[in-house]
Amino acid sequence: MRFLRSALAGEKVTEEYETFSVSKFRLARAADPVPSIMLAALRPGMLRLAAEETDGASTNWLAASGVPKVHEVVGPDFRVSHRGRARPRRIVP
Prior knowledge:
alpha/beta, three-stranded parallel sheet, elongated, Luciferase-like_sf, monooxygenase activity, oxidoreductase, oxidoreductase activity, acting on paired donors, with incorporation or reduction of molecular oxygen
């Protein structure tokens, strides 16, 4: 997440991360405006990571009854998106 935030902002990134390293990476064109970074998360560990490192969490497929539990982990002001359950679509040839 830290790499993405820096890279999307147009910064030159040289860093050793826990699982990879990068040297002198820079996008040819920085994103303008810089997009929000959201992390798909349902369980407490991923929700904490989202709260610490991103702009929000996507809690796709979360039942409405689970929303209070999410806010217990990330706090009431943290941005959480919820698409809800997709409706089946009929595909017509």
